[in-house]
Design goal:
The structure is a homodimer. Chain A is of the alpha/beta class. Chain A folds into two domains: about 10-15 and about 260-385, Aspartate Aminotransferase, domain 1, CATH 3.90.1150; about 20-260, Type I PLP-dependent aspartate aminotransferase-like (Major domain) (Aspartate Aminotransferase, domain 2). Helix content of chain A is about 45%, strand content about 15%. The first copy, chain A, contains 14 helices and 13 strands. The first copy, chain A, has helices at about 20-25, 35-55, 65-75, 90-100, 120-130, 150-160, 180-185, 210-215, 225-235, 245-260, 265-285, 310-320, 345-360, 370-385, and strands spanning about 10, 60, 85-90, 105-110, 135-140, 140, 145-150, 165-170, 185-190, 205, 295-300, 320, 335-340. In chain A, the strands form four sheets. A seven-stranded mixed β-sheet of chain A has the order 2-10-9-8-5-3-4, with helices on both faces. The first copy, chain A, has a two-stranded parallel ribbon with strand order 1-12. A two-stranded antiparallel ribbon of chain A has the order 6-7. In chain A, strand 8 (about 165-170), helix 7 and strand 9 (about 185-190) form a beta-alpha-beta unit. In chain A, helix 3 crosses helix 4 (about 90-100), helix 12 crosses helix 13 (about 345-360) and helix 13 runs antiparallel to helix 14. The N and C termini of chain A lie far apart (about 45 Å). Chains A and B meet through helix 11, helix 13 and helix 14 of A and helix 10, helix 12 and helix 13 of B.
């Protein structure tokens, strides 16, 4: 007998579970993208994206993973006399540095200890010490460590030194509060398979007027990811290349769901699940890894006696549940459980129960059931406030 | 903010959750049923059904709910000089009596207290007291009370008095052990939306040689549900009327999954989930309703202070989880949670957590988390035996 389940559960910080009604749109017949029917959909989607980015600027859509949009930012900003500052406190900070390297862009690095969030004073020191730095590349949620960065404060300092702030908000968007225009963010980037609750395949980028001034002056090493080309179509609610039609149709549904819930409520929901998850983890006697935890994903220190890669593999193989391990230097040392997108308290309950089963299996001493009880207690507190 | 989930969870004793790969078959283009392609599928399905019924006799397929197949049994057996005995200990026993009434069949009733299973001695008393009784109508799992009936023992007594045994195995099949041929069951009936993990829409019936002797002699008040007509097609792996093509295609997939797991393991899995569910319920201080509980569904006495209909409604409205209330005389007095078909320990965890949330909301005094802890403990015990 196998009492262990064969269903699959996705509790990773991307891809995330896709709502049933969006999955159904993916099975609909493909319509042509140069038709009034699609144009109407793309117009709706373009407006909806402004709402989730909290911007009045157009949000451009690429058929690519989020990394494509990150590349477009660097490739289209790069020009003589401009230096980038990469805020590097995890794998996705490293990605910014690697992209700069790939395009031969002049890039200064601010090393941030993994698990910590950047100290704005350190950013200011860099900016005041080197006036050539004109672009700060940072992340909202550094997915690899589960840390949220205070991009609002970073933008404030950047403004003081007349530098642009480019934010990889791929995993953070919709989980962590993010207000592009109000906070003075110059470029924001997102992906479909995170808080937007879609399959992977779309990336998004929006630029402020200040950012466009730089882009207009550059001779980009880019064709597919040429932002001026994308904008000349985008401002007419169009794309220069064939868009991923079914994903765009799914996106319309996702944006409808988000507008219906209201973005402030989406943030609050993520915030509640994240705080509750942290309580459950601490209830098991485990230590949290991130100093400033994001509401997208909770990173957890693995006790020394256990290899977190084995732990994650065990949970996936035995219980069909995908959580994430550590990346790079954190390999084997942390595990990460997401509460991102189409998730609720019951998803967390399943995830924490599986973590309890695995801890038990790996011989870790703890009080069985304490994690899931914590979830119940916190849920009931919050539920009482609602009714 | 709404922290409460909007996902839907099905923990009812039918319909039950449908596996992802079967859902996908329901979106495939419809093929014609009078083609070699469909004939191959229907042949496979017909063989697979014999396995789940544990019979060598053909299993006939109707496009109807299970009630249709129940009707076909009565309508095709009814004849002069034959009296039915309806074993009536719940809503589905009542259904047998109602069908007899609708067809003007001579029907004796054995009243069984709801929540109890029939005493075979009482059946013997009926049979020995009235030689005209030639057909016993009974259920495997009386879904309305969550009771399993010892149909093997009933069949033994029936044989002694040369009576047929007709078993409504609609909710019990694949959850409770059932061996049609070995146990000498004459007619067995099932439906698609239970242990077979399909959407509703198909019913199944299989008859022993003895049963066919009676059917052959009858002049049935039946056209759609004429068993001789169904058999003349069925023995050629065909149906007289248009079959529900996509459900049959889904059924092929379901039977593959069951064969892969092996029926003994399917029974054991249901048995484990049912036993674990009962422990969780008792851990919450609640009382079980059924004297001999089925492995398909657990029926629970609602504390007097709570109306179980309100309780079930609250769980559905607030948490998106469907469990069942009481039917008929049990309305308001019991609730029922299923562990039937495509379900696992995590489904139970979600169900029991929701029950804990609701009990808390209705002011019932209990130790929060005790039900879900019990599930974890029992799962780990069983899991250890597996590895």
């Amino acid at each position: 007998m196998r009492v262990t389940p064969r269903k699959k559960y996705l509790l990773t910080p991307g891809p995330t579970p896709v709502p049933e009604e969006i999955l159904l749109t993916q099975a609909e017949p493909i319509i042509h993208h140069r038709t009034p029917e699609f144009k109407k959909i793309f117009t709706e989607v373009s407006e909806g994206l402004k709402y989730v980015f909290q911007t009045k600027n157009p949000v451009l859509v690429f058929s690519s993973s989020g990394t494509g949009a990150m590349e477009s930012a660097v490739a289209n900003l790069k020009q003589d006399g401009i230096k980038f500052l990469s805020v590097m406190g995890g794998k996705f900070g490293e990605r910014w540095t690697e992209i700069c390297k790939a395009f031969g862009a002049d890039c200064e690095v601010l090393e941030v200890k993994w698990g910590q969030s950047p100290d704005t004073k350190d950013i200011e020191t860099k900016l005041s010490g080197d006036k050539a730095i004109k672009v700060i590349l940072t992340t909202l949620c550094e997915t690899s460590t589960g840390s949220v960065y205070d991009v609002k404060a970073i933008a404030k300092i950047a403004k003081k030194y007349d530098a642009l702030v480019v934010v990889d908000a791929i995993s953070g968007l919709l989980a962590d509060e993010f207000r592009m225009d109000d906070w003075g963010i110059d470029i924001a980037i997102a992906g479909s398979q995170k808080g937007l609750m879609l399959p992977p395949g779309l990336s998004f980028i929006s630029l402020s007027g200040r950012a466009w001034e730089y882009v207009d002056k550059s001779k980009p090493q880019a064709y597919y990811f040429n932002l001026k080309k994308a904008m000349s179509s985008g401002e007419k609610y169009d794309t220069p290349w064939t868009p991923a039609v079914s994903l765009v149709i799914g996106l319309r549904k996702a944006l409808e769901l988000i507008k219906e819930e209201k973005i402030e409520n989406v943030w609050k929901r993520h915030n509640f699940l994240a705080a509750t998850c942290r309580q459950a983890i601490e209830g098991l006697g485990l230590k949290l890894f991130a100093q400033n935890p994001s509401s997208a994903v909770t990173s957890v220190m693995m006790p020394d006696s256990i290899d977190s890669a084995e732990f994650v593999k065990f949970i996936r193989n035995e219980f069909g549940i995908s959580i994430a391990g550590g990346q790079g230097a954190l390999k084997g040392k942390i595990f990460r459980i997401a509460h991102l997108g189409y998730m609720n308290i019951f998803d967390l309950l399943v995830g924490i129960a599986a973590i309890e089963f695995a801890l038990h299996n790996f011989g870790y001493k703890f009080s069985l059931g304490k994690g899931i009880l914590k979830l119940e207690e916190e849920f009931l507190k919050e539920y009482k406030k609602e009714i």
